[in-house]
TrEMBL record:
Keywords: mRNA transport, Nuclear pore complex, Nucleus, Protein transport, Repeat, Translocation, Transport, WD repeat. One of its GO terms (biological process) is cellular response to amino acid starvation. This is Uncharacterized protein. It is a peripheral membrane protein. The lineage of its organism: Eukaryota, Fungi, Dikarya, Ascomycota, Saccharomycotina. It is found in: Endomembrane system; Nucleus, Nuclear pore complex. GO terms for molecular function: structural molecule activity. InterPro entries: Sec13/Seh1_fam, WD40/YVTN_repeat-like_dom_sf, WD40_repeat_dom_sf, WD40_rpt. Belongs to the WD repeat SEC13 family.
């Protein structure tokens, strides 16, 4: 683990790698976005460009799939989502290499998370903020990325938590192309699974229960080679939780459908699949607030980070029980490498 100076003048809120892992974008309370490129010879991160992107703290970043070009979405406390496209003809570090495509300003409160949908769903974007509303946008024409339309606007919370001293919201799309479109939406201490039904609308089909505080992070695992789905959450109560989702066909009748939490939802509106949710793993190894969880590209290893200043890597054993396989500490003395502790009893 090699630290590098981001050059931000305030707190860094989010870090996002592009699809190939060769570029990383950072955002901060200094209202700037910075993009770094990896030097193949030295393995150092070099500043590619930096620009003032919003009028308030920028708290979330995400890269679009590379098949749509080099596009970044940013969400800010200034209530806007902005989309940026790279112009490779502009000189690096000029502040002009990334051009604003458009501004989405439907939110009535500070935004907390913004995420592009998997590539197979098209150029689609989701965001959520402390107005308690989850929104999705679609690009009208892939050839004209300056035109986006609001396709969904769903009130997740009946009461806006704008007046709360602490609040948190996060999103994670289901990456599977062999499953109906789904997204995990977390608002304060509740986590809901939305699925697109036959009426082309998003409906609540499952809920992740058991959280004892604000949900700081959610990550939907790639399901390569699996017949089930895995979702991880990191919570203010200090626990990392892993949920298992299985899809079960059900009879085409409203009485047999038990997966919906929406009063208006019925079997003629949603696909005939019952989502069964099971909490399969719960860990409090961080002994403090958990701020981030993220799966690797194959969905086999989960990383978590907490207030203890450590990154923990979790892996499923042969008995399908998740165990901590290693602990990485960012604390290091001068001219010393970070601590890396291996647990011999884990595979």
């Amino acid at each position: 683990m090699r630290p590098f100076d981001s050059g931000h003048e305030d707190l860094v809120h989010d870090v996002s790698y592009d699809f190939y892992g060769r570029h990383v974008a950072t955002c901060s309370s200094d209202q700037h976005i910075k993009v770094f490129s990896l030097d193949k010879d030295t393995n150092d991160w070099q500043l590619s460009d930096s620009w003032r992107a919003h009028n308030s703290s920028i708290v979330s970043l995400d890269w679009a799939s590379p098949e749509y070009g080099r596009i970044i979405a940013s969400g800010s406390y200034d209530k806007t989502v902005k989309l940026w496209e790279e112009d490779p003809d502009q000189e690096e570090c000029s502040g002009r290499r990334w051009n604003k495509l458009c501004t989405l300003n439907d939110s009535k409160g500070a935004l907390y998370d913004v995420k592009f949908a998997p590539a197979h769903l098209g150029l689609r974007l989701a965001c959520i903020g402390n107005d308690g509303t989850f929104r999705t946008y679609d690009a009208l024409e892939p050839s004209d990325l300056r035109s986006w339309t609001l396709t969904s606007e769903i009130k997740v919370l009946s009461v806006s938590p704008a007046s709360h001293l602490q609040s948190d919201f996060c999103l994670s799309w289901c990456p599977s192309r062999f499953s109906p479109e789904k997204i995990a939406v977390c608002a304060l201490d509740q986590a809901l699974i939305y699925q697109r039904g036959k009426d082309n609308k998003l409906h609540v089909t499952a809920k992740l229960e058991g959280h004892g505080g604000l949900i700081r992070s959610v990550s939907w695992a790639p399901s390569i080679g699996k017949w089930y789905q895995l979702i991880a959450t990191g919570c203010k109560d200090g626990k990392v939780r892993i949920f298992k989702l299985t899809e079960r066909p059900v009879a085409h009748s409203a009485s047999s459908f038990v997966g919906s939490y929406d009063d208006d939802a019925s079997m003629d509106k949603v696909d005939s699949l019952d989502l069964h949710v099971e909490l399969i793993s719960e860990h409090d190894d961080h002994k403090s607030e958990v701020w981030s969880v993220s799966w690797n590209l194959t969905g086999t290893i989960l990383s978590s980070a907490g207030d203890d200043g450590k990154v923990r890597l979790w892996r499923s054993s042969y008995s399908s029980e998740f165990k901590c396989m290693s602990v990485i500490s960012a604390q290091q003395q001068q001219q010393q490498q970070p601590t890396f502790q291996e647990r011999s009893q884990d595979p």
